[in-house]
Amino acid sequence: MTIHLHQSDLPDGLTLGPVVAIDTETMGLDPRRDRLCVVQLSDGNGDAHLVQIARGQTRAPNLERLLTDPATLKLFHFGRFDIAALKQAFGVTTAPVWCTKIASRLIRTFTDRHGLKYLLADLVGVDVSKQQQTSDWGAAQLTEAQKEYAASDVLYLHALKAELEARLIREDRLELAQRLFAFLPTRAELDLLGWNDANDIFLH
Ligand code: MN
């Protein structure tokens, strides 16, 4: 496993295949207040690419091209947050997308545990540390522990997707899942516009 660290954007000419796992680290949980600090990507073959985003940065052409490429599926865990953070930072709508948290909620209705750490332990058999989750991602120099944590959030998403997809097919909910994934960028945009959980547009 290799962690590649990049500044401001992905390098020219890097290809990550048809399904790219993506996660983001931000200064906090409000995408309108808390800036994007790191974008992690993996093609599912064991390597991770970490892109550090500078304060005030509004463009990342190679990354934006990947996020908006209709031929590249962007794979997230709780993509709603990451898609909002990426739209807030670069003004782009990430699509098409797949979300392991939505998939888990659709088929693992016997539990309310849908966190990534729990899913990876239960479905993929890997144990990832969540110790660095709340660390200062705006630091100019990331620690080794931060880099390893950031990478671990994307390295196993392809394996997790395979397990969840098999169960979605078994329970005949894949098509419903796909319609939810198609709506996800709109859900993220609603969050940015103020229609968040406290102001749910679908409520009476
Ligand atoms: Mn993460």
Structure at a glance:
The protein is 41% helix and 16% strand. With 204 residues, it is α/β, with parallel strands linked by helices.
Q: Could you please describe the fold and organization of this structure?
A:
- This protein is α/β, with parallel strands linked by helices and 204 residues long.
- The chain has a single domain, classed as 2-Layer Sandwich (Nucleotidyltransferase, domain 5).
- It is built from 7 helices and 6 strands; from the N terminus they run E-E-E-E-H-E-H-E-H-H-H-H-H.
- It has a 6-stranded mixed sheet with strand order 1-4-3-2-5-6, sandwiched between helices.
- Helix 2 crosses helix 7 (174-193), helix 3 (100-107) runs parallel beside helix 6 (157-170) and helix 4 crosses helix 6.
- The model has no long low-confidence stretch (mean pLDDT 96).
- The protein binds manganese (II) ion.
- Residues 23, 25, 153 line the site of manganese (II) ion.
Architecture blueprint of SSEs:
Blueprint: E1 3-7, E2 19-26, E3 36-42, E4 48-52, H1 61-68, E5 73-76, H2 79-90, E6 97-99, H3 100-107, H4 116-124, H5 144-155, H6 157-170, H7 174-193
Parallel strand pairs: 1-4, 2-5, 5-6
Antiparallel strand pairs: 2-3, 3-4
Bound molecules: manganese (II) ion (MN).
Manganese (II) ion binds at residues 23, 25, 153.
